Amino acid sequence: MRSTADIEAAMSGVPGSFHLMASLGDEVYARGSFSEARRLFWASADGATVAADRARTLAWLTGSSIDLEHLALRLAHPDVPHPLASGALWRGVHGVPGAEAVLFDGRGQLRTRRWWDEPPGELPLAVGAPAVRQALVNAVGVRARPGQVLGADLSGGMDSTSLCFLAARAGASLVTATLEWAATGNEDAAYADRAAAQLPGIQRLVYGPADLPACFTGLAHPHEPGDEPTALLRDRAQQQHIADAMRAAGAELRLTGHGGDHVVEAPDQYLHRLLRRHPLHGLRHAAGQRARHHWDLRSAARTVMDTGSYRTWLTGTADALKRPVAPASAPTGWGAPMALPPWAGALAVEQAADLLRQEARTAEPLAHERGQHAWIHQAQTAGRLAGHLFSSAPGGLRAASPFCDDAVINACLAVSASATKSPWRYKPLLAEAMRGLVPEPILARTSKDHSATEWYAGLALHQADLARWAADSRLVACGLADEPELRRAFLSPRTLDRGAHALEATLAAEAWLCDLESCPTPTYLREHADEPADAR
Q1: Pairwise CA distance, residues 375 & 365, whole Å
Q2: Which residues contact 207 (CB under 8 A, 6 or more apart)?
Q3: What is the DSSP letter of 42?
Q4: Which of 451, 453, 431, 455 is CA-nearest to residue 442?
Q5: How many CB atoms lie within 10 A of CB 529?
Q6: Which residues are 175's β-sheet partners?
C-alpha cells in the first residue's frame, strides 16, 4: 500500500459493515462506512486533533456541552437534511460525512478526503438485479456460518424474509421472530407463515401484542444514552424481550431487515429526472404515483416545474419550518417537506432556521440529480439507525443490518432509480434480485403492515410518566419547547395532525436529555472518570 487510493481499491466491494484504518508512513488514514452505520467524529483537545467512533467519547474528553441549535433541528420531522444529519450534537465535536475519510499527519493535524464515488445509476433492472443479489448473498454470508445459530426477524415483509432465506442458504440455524400487530387488515403473520413453511428446521418465536411489553415500557427509567436521540425508544423493551428469547435459544447474532425500505427503492424524487429525460414515461409514472398517494394536483405540477438548487431548497425549508405540511403533497424539492411541531418554542424555530440558512450558503447535495441525492440521503438515514441498533445490542445480542452495508447500497444505487420504483409494483429491484431464492408469494406482496394501534396504546398506558415529563421537561428548560403545547401533545397524541411522525422525534430528544442527565459519563469510560483531564 503506497497511497490511500491503493487502500480503497483493495477494499472495493468488501462485504460487511466496518471501520477502516491504515498507517501509511507518518500518516494515519481512517474512515467509517459510507452508510454512516459506522461513524467517525473528531474534536480538538489541547492543540491536538482526536478522532473516535463515538461523539460522546470526544464530548467527555473535551468537556463539550450539548449544541442546542442542532438539537432544535432534531425536533423537526420527518428527518434532518444533509449535511446537518451527519453532524454531532456537541459543541466542538464534528461528524465526518460517510463519503469522507480523515488523514492525520505526523504532527497530529487532520484533513479530510473524499473516498466514495457515486455509482452512475444507469443500469437496467435486468443487469442491476443480479449484482444486488450477489451483494446480499455476500453480506449475509460474512455473518452466517454453517451450523451457526442466528436470530432473524421473519416479519413476513420482503426485506427480512429475504435475509432469512439467504441465511438458511448459507447453512445457519435460524431462530426467527414474528410480530402479529393488531390493526385490521395486517398481513405480516400470514406471509411469515408462508415463508416459514419453506424454511424447514427453523425455531419460531411468534408474538401477539399481549405477549410483549407495551410500547414505551421503561420510559421513566434511565438508559445509557447514545450519541443522539433515536426512535429506538419506542420498542426498546419489546426488542429486549425478543433478544433474550433468541439468546436463550442459542443465537449469537440477530439479522434485521432494517434499511430495506430505504435502500432497494428510490424515493419519489426520482420523478424529477424521469420527467425530463423520458417525458411520456415520466408522466405515466407521475400519474400512477399521484393516484397511489393521493397527491393534490398543484403539488404534482410543482414536481414537474421546480428547478431550484439544493441551496435554494434549504433556504426555503428554513422559511417554512412552522408551516403545516400538507399530507397529500407530492415531492417538490430535494427531500421530504420538513416542519417543526406546534410545541417547538420560538427559540427552537429561530435556531433551527438559522442553522439551515447558514448551511445553505455553502452546502452541496449528495448527488447532482435530486432523486439520487434523496435516495442517498435516505440510505444514510437508515445507516445511522443501523449503527444505533448495533451499539444498543438489547439483551447483549448484537444486531446486523445487511441492507445497510456499503456494498449493498452501492449495488442498488448503480441501478436506474426509475427501475427500482413503480406505481404498479412493490420493490421491483429486490423482487428481481431474490427471484428463485424467495417464494413467489412473498415477492409478489404489495402491502405493508403498521403498528399504530400498539403505538397509541403504549402512550396511553404511560400517560403518568409523560405527564411528569411535560411538567419537568428538559426541552422546555432549554427553551426549545412550549410547556402547555408539549403537555397537550404528550397526553393527547391522537389530536395531532401528523400523529406519530410529529411526536416521535420530540419523545426521543426528551428521553435523550433525561438519560444524559442520569448518565453524564459513558459507561465504557467510567473507569477513567476520576482521572485528571490531562491524563484522559
Answers
A1: 11
A2: 177, 178, 179, 180, 242
A3: E
A4: 431
A5: 11
A6: 151, 203
Angle of CA points 139, 179, 203, to nearest 5°:
65
CA distances from 535 to 449, 506, 529, 531 (A): 52, 37, 10, 6
pLDDT for 393-449, tens place per residue? 877 899 999 999 999 999 999 999 999 999 999 999 999 999 999 999 999 988 777
SS3 at position 492: coil
Position 498 pLDDT exceeds 70? no
DSSP 250-295: T-S-EE--TTHHHHSS--TTHHHHHHHHSHHHHHHHHHHHHHHHT-
Give the pLDDT confidence of 42-79 residue by residue, as tens digits: 999 888 899 999 999 999 999 999 999 999 999 998 88
Instruction: Please give the helix or strand (H or E) that residue 22 lies within, else none.
Output: strand 20-24
Closest CA relative to residue 170, chosen from 193, 192, 137: 137
Please measure the distance between the N-terminal and C-terminal CA atoms of the chain and give it in whole angstroms: 33
DSSP string, 193-222: HHHHHTSTTPEEEEE-GGGSPPTTTTTTS-
- The amino acid sitting at 531 is E
Q: What are phi and psi of 46, to 5 degrees?
A: 55, 40
The residues pairing with 304 across neighbouring beta strands, listed in sequence order, are: none
Half-sphere exposure of 53 (CA within 13 A, CB side): 17
Chain centre distance of CA 143: 21
Among 102-106, 114-118, 271-275, 446-450, the least confident range: 446-450
Buried b (16+ CB within 10 A) or exposed e, 290-326: beeeebeeebbeebbebeeebbebbbbbbeebeeebe
Cell of 475: 426541552
The Cα–Cα gap between 387 and 401 comes to 9
Rounded Cα–Cα distance for residues 369 and 204 (Å): 44
CA-based R_g, the chain, Å: 23
pLDDT band at 382, cuts 50/70/90? Answer: very high
Query: Where do we find the cell 432497494?
Result: 264
What distance in Å separates the CA atoms of residue 297 and residue 305, rounded to the nearest whole number?
13
The Cα–Cα gap between 42 and 54 comes to 9
Q: How far apart are CA 491 and CA 485, in angstroms?
A: 10
| pTM score over 0.90 | yes
Q: Which amino acid would we find at residue 170?
A: A
pLDDT on residue 398: 93
- What's the rounded Cα separation, in Å, for the pair 536 and 416? 50
Indicate the helix (H) or strand (E) that contains 173.
strand 173-179
CA 143 → CA 172, 175, 358, 405, distances in Å? 9, 15, 42, 12
Are 411 and 405 in contact by the 8 Å Cβ rule? The answer is no
How far apart are the C-alpha atoms of 167 and 149, rounded to whole Å?
10
Say if residues 33 and 263 touch (Cβ distance below 8 Å): no
Report d(CA 263, CA 375) in Å as an integer.
7
Q: Among 255, 253, 239, 292, which Cα is nearest to 451's?
A: 239
Contact 185, 224 (CB under 8 A): no
Per DSSP (E only), the strands in 437-526 are none
